[in-house]
Every structure is written in C-alpha cells, then in structure tokens.
Amino acid sequence: MSIEYIDGIRLYRSLIAGLRRVVSRQEYLNKINVFPVPDGDTGTNMAFTLTSIEEGIQNNAYSDIKKMSMAIADSALDGARGNSGAILAQFFVGFADGIKDVKKINTDEFSQAISHAKNYSYDALTKPREGTILSVIRSWSESLESSSKKSNDFLTILSSGLINAQKALEKTPQQLEVLAKAGVLDAGAQGFVDMLSGIQEFVELGSITETDLTIIESFEKEVITTTNEKYQYCTECIILGENIPRRLLKERLMDLGDSIVLAGTKIKAKVHIHSDEPHKVFTLCKEYGSIQGEKTDDMIKQQVDAHSSHSSTAIIVDSGCDLPEEIIDNMNIHVIPVRLNFGNTHYVDKVSLTSDEFWKELKTNPNHPQTSQPSPGDFRRQYQFLSSHYESAISIHLPEALSGTYQSAITAAKSLSTFSVNILDSFSGTIGTGLIAMRTAEAIAKGKNINEVKIIAKQAIENTQLYVGLDNLDNIVKGGRISPTVQKIANFFKINPYLAFKKDGLKPVGISFGNNDKANKFRKFVENKIPKNKKVRIGISHAQMNIFVENWIKSLINRFGENNVITTDIGPALGVHTGPKVLCFAIQILNDNLNK
User: Fold this and answer.
1) Smallest Cα–Cα separation from 44: which of 218, 188, 168, 184?
2) Class assignment of domain 6-221?
3) For the chain, which residues make up each domain, given as ranges?
4) Cis status, amide bond into 337, omega within 30 of 0
5) Fewer CB within a 10 Å sphere, N or C end of the chain?
6) In angstroms, what CA-CA distances link 585 with 25, 461, 481?
7) How far apart are the first and last CA of the chain?
8) Regarding the domain delimited by 464-595, which CATH topology (the fold level of the hierarchy) does it fall under?
9) What is the DSSP letter of 81?
10) CA-CA distance, 596 to 593, in Å (whole number)?
11) What is the pLDDT of residues 57-68, one digit of tens each?
C-alpha cells in the first residue's frame, strides 16, 4: 500500500522511530567520533537533541504538519547539544520554515521542505565542510527532489533517499583526511543515516528493532586519533531576542573560537562554538537578547575519557566541590557545574566566572547573586557520555537538605537502564566534598570494584567533617540558610557562630566573641577538633584569606605531611552563601580500607 501524504502525527511517529534508532546507536557513534574534535560525544549529543523532541512534545502532538514541524524545531533548539546536534536542530528549523501553512503534505512538498532544511543546515556554519552530516543531508535532499518528480509514494522516495544517503556516508573518509586516518566514517553523518534507517523501518513495518552493536568492539582497537587541544570548551547557549542579526553574530563569534554553528530564527537562536573564553561568548550573546541554557563541556577531558586508558569506574561531583585544578585533573574527577546569576546575568560556575571575578562582581553588583542546581538533563547527558567509556560511576553531591542538586542526579540516573550510577549525598560541601572525592578516586586507582568503591566512599563521607567560619552573616542570611533574627542576635552580642555540615543541614556547633582576630579564633576552635592518635587529612578552602592560610598550612604540613594538607579557593557557587573572608576547615580520618 502506498503512502501519498504525511501529516503531523505521521511525521512525529516516524521521527520518534528514527530517534530511538540513534539512541540505540549512541555508544557506537561516540566510538567513531573524531571530527571536528575527537571528544567521543557525538552519539550522546545527537541522542540528547532528538530525545528532547520527544520530551518536548509528548502528549501534545499536532495532526497539523505545520504546527508539528514548528514544535519539533522549537524542542530541537532547546535540546540541541554539540556540533551535530546544533546542525540537526537547524535542519528541523529549516524544514518547518519550508512547509506552507497546511495540515498535510505530498512527496513533492516534502522534498521542497527538505531542500529548504538542507540550505538552512549549510547556512548555520561559518565554514561548512563536506564529508560530514552536511554531505549526507545534501545527498538525501537531492535524491528526494529527483524521485518525488517520478513518484507520489513516500515509501518509494524514502527508500531511494536512504540508499543515496548511505552512499554519501561511505564517501566521507574520502572527503575528510582525519576520517581516513582514523579508519572511520563521520559520526554525525552516520547518526543522520541511522535516523533515516529507523524512519524507513517504521514506515515499512510499523516497528523498530534494536541495532546490533557488536561492531563497536573493533573500533576500540582501530580508531587512531590525536588529541585536539586548540580550544578547551564546547560552549553553547540560547539567545531569545528580536531580529537577531545572525550573520553579524556569526562574524563576531569567529573572533572567539571555531566550529561555530548558529541555528534557529530571528527570535530564538542556538549558539555552538569551541572556545577558550566561554564568558566572552556569553557576554557577546547577551548583546542580542536574554540568554539561557548556558553549557560548557571540557573537550580535552572528554578526549582523555574517549581515547586514553583509565579505570572502569568514573567519579562525578558538582562544582560545589572545591579542589585544586591539578588534583581534579590528575584524579580524573568529572565536574558538573552549578549555575549562578546576578539579576539577569547568568554564569556557569568556575567556567564562565572564576572565584576572583566573582568576588569583584559581588562587591560592585547591586543584585545579590542566586544559585540554581544543575538540571536532570545536565546530569543525564554527562552520565550518557560516560556510559560509552566507563562501566559504572560514583556521583557525589551537595546535601539534599541544602540543594536540589542531589535530586537532579537521582532523577537523571533513573533514566539510565544499562549504566550503573551510584548517587551519594556528601553531607558536606566545598573542600569537605573535595576530600571525599579524593578518597573515592584513590579507591578507584587501587583497582577496587564498584561495590568496594561505594563502601569506601560512604566511609569517607562518615569520616569527613567540615567546619565553616564566616566573617559575617550577611550572605548566608540573604541565601536563606540562617534567619535574619539569628543575625540580629549575633550582631548585637558580637557572636561569631561556627557552622558544620550535618545530615540535616548546616548547623551551629560553636561560637566565639568579638570582632577582633576572628580567623585565629576559628583556627583554634577547629584544630581542637582534630582527633588525637589518628591518621587524618586536612582540607582548607577560603575566600580572600591567602596570607592567613599560607601561614596556617605551614604548621599543618609540619604535623600531618604535605600530601595530607589540601588548600584551595572556595568557588562562586558556595561563595554566594558564605560571602568573602570565609574559612572552611575539613577533617578526614584516614583508615586503612584502601589496602584491604
């Protein structure tokens, strides 16, 4: 039986079949991802982009194909991730724009809309390259245009289009030298063909089957690639504005990086760029409207995960965990950033806003900053990426009693059926969580299995206590962690409360009096908490207390050894609540469980 038209419902169902094929193939696509950067996340990004369409529409599918295509395009823009994901979103924007205001379309109208989508896809890039997803889109479009002149049956034109798209895919190594050297096809192009294959199978059979992924194993041995360190961050955001000058914006973005994709419309644009300066990217984008969905991925770290030898267990923390950058890198700790904002100005913690920049902004900005936890989508995308390169993960986060970060991680982990993610409440923060992450990473480095690592991580949580000494209570009151009444009483009696992270939240555990010599009073208080005759690790995080801390750690190193004293700045995410001149002191009892 021939199919002579498609409406919104048929379009949606076909696309869902296609996206499920891509989702089932995402690990394979990650394995063969070498262009434009071999960061091993093309499959994850394409799957995330397409899944956003299903989540964005769900029960609101339109029978009207114009309305449905517009809803698909909007959801794709919101969920677009990575180079191929942004191109894919622009493809759907072009398709929607190419459809007239009708409820259903025939083969000729469909091929015209696809041609429109092809032009939009090329236009999204500052430097379009053949041998990529673009080549497959072009070949598919040209085939549809030709066959639709001869047939009004969608089964016929889609079958012919898939054959030509597959041929274009096979040619990608001839067009890009990096693919030929690695011995792979282009991952984005393969993902697009996989989507078409899923659609074709659904159109023909009304069902979709799982793809055989056994071919993945051979690519683990055969892919030859070189780390691309030209730019560190894959940076993305959405601009909401009026008459966004897309060509001008693309030209200005060229000064900040490469691999630029600008998708969307005059009122909603998705920006993708590889850059070392995410903050400058976001600042530029804010000139053209409000921005949302800021995202930065460390591509160098992703390339290490994808192509270097490492343990089978990944460790993940949020940016409420403070550690020196060299420890995070050396111990291969993955960080999901918290977000914060001063009024309408948004930042990605520790990426688009450093600690030094934060304190300057806090001093001059009339808006008090606010934080927001990473979304379940942020966690899910990170977990999906890691699932291609690790067997399991330990994910350690800010306390559930103080932040929604823990719940976001739980929600994301539930959506994964084949990747074991163990979510742990740190019952701590800043350097306290840092010491817990270090102990967990040491267990992983010792070759412990996931169950042993989980036990050691839980023991580290039990054996770590964090104390906080504030210069004043202004910020912690503004952040809602302590009531204004408590502040008034403390100020009146010149009381300096000392706080500690407990299982039910941040609680007062001691006090000192007077406004003089606050730091030394706190030092005396916490050093008295260090247990006698036990091996310990000490952590200090602080804000603008460099000289005091430098002198303090000298005596601590003499007592406990250089390897057991860790110091770092407190990050913006927690600095929002503590204010400047804060001192945080963590004590971790070290047992011998790593050697058992």
Assistant:
1) 188
2) mainly alpha
3) 6-221, 464-595
4) no
5) N
6) 46, 15, 19
7) 67
8) Hypothetical Protein Tm841; Chain: A;domain 3 (3.30.1180)
9) -
10) 5
11) 877 778 999 999
